[in-house]
Amino acid sequence: MRQTQETNLDDRHAEEDRRALVRYAVLTAVLFIPLFLAFVSTRNLYPFAASTMMLGIRDTQRGQTYYVLRGEKVSGETIDLPPIKLTNALTGRSWSLVRAAVENQSFKIRSPHPANIRLAAAYDGLDKLPRAARLEELLRAWGEIYNSRLSGSSNQRLKSIRLDAYRWEGGLNGDYDRFVESWRAEL
Amino acid sequence: MPTDATTLGMVRAGVCGFILCELLLTSFSDLSRLPVTLLRPTGAMQILPWRLYDLLLTSGGMLTLKWLMVLSLFAATVGCLTSLTTKTSALLFVFYEGLLRSFGHFNHDEMPAVYILIVLALTPCGDAFSLDSWRGKTRPRRSGIVYGYPILLMRMLLAWSYFSSALIKLRVAGLSYLSPDNLPNLAIFHSLDNLHDTHFRLAFWLPHVRQYTPIFVALVLLWELLFPLALFFKRARLITLALGIVFHLGTIFFMNIFFPYHLAMYLVFVDWGRWLRKVEDYLSASRLRSPSKGSLEGKA
Asked: What is the value of ipTM here, to two decimals?
């Protein structure tokens, strides 16, 4: 009787193991085939990454634009405002969010947010949309996050927040910070 | 390669515990203040309707998401209803990481953790080192491959991240990736603004040693290409992972880029079961020694 029970248990385990192996084979294929395709096409298609993060700067002579976020306090002092201290969920991503906001990237996707479609239509199309059309909202959001951590009467609160754009003309000669333009949001 | 239920269970606890700690330290309410109009849903995230994002990017929406994730990951960490909670954790984390990538660019730091959670969700990782096993709800099976293959698969996924990263650099940039200007340019580009997470300025020293940087870049590429050796050889594993720690710390100081998830996922390379047995053996040996020591002292 006991031997029969053990044999049945063995059979059940063997059957479970067989099913587990089939599941593992499918799981391996489901993960690795899209990863391999992402690699071959050099395209990230979430959730499959092509590991394109460190590809380097293709044309090192063309130069780059970069941005510095600053705040102006009620006391008159101007401070640097690293966004990681404001939205720590965006670890390693704030720089690309700002770049995308300046370049109106959220208007250029296949299916933009309805509010973005309306805004583009109000300007008679994407071509006539001003640069950084939604940037002020982002700046204001960051400014409000900063102020929400201070009391209403504090002179450390921000009265405005701005994004300064600088140009690095390329090359390694130390000419890294030619001021280009600035966007500002009053709080 | 470990093939025991305990190692798989401890990997589950480590991976889910790490992600849980990260989430607890993250302010979802601050994230909810960002304008939804800046989102660019990426990949699979495009399937979801804008109405969902409108609801999600509110204080209530993001707090709901956070606490769902915290509850699910906590349960998965301690191994409570493991089969269910590892699946919900994987699903919620895939969604959350997709949301973050819809704001910024597609960096691949967290991606091995996403894949490892998916693997854990579909394997019997609650058969040991879990509340479920302590309550007698699960029983480890005898076949080692049931526990050993998921560990191998998780290691392969992490190794692929490095290996493919090196291959893609060589494919796209070719040997120009080894040009003396490449590393200084890349490092300086990531050190100019104040939008990165850290603001180290060591990158500006690199132009002074630019003639040596190709050697360093070549060594990094070689390390990435050889990373899969860590799957098969214990000594190679130790060297590869140690170099990985040095590399990732180096990218913080020179490039203001950090890959904490990649580093944390090195835990899949540790034979936790063996370490646990060693600790248990040590403790039982200490217990055995203590009474005799006491009796000897008594006699003295």
From this structure: 0.92
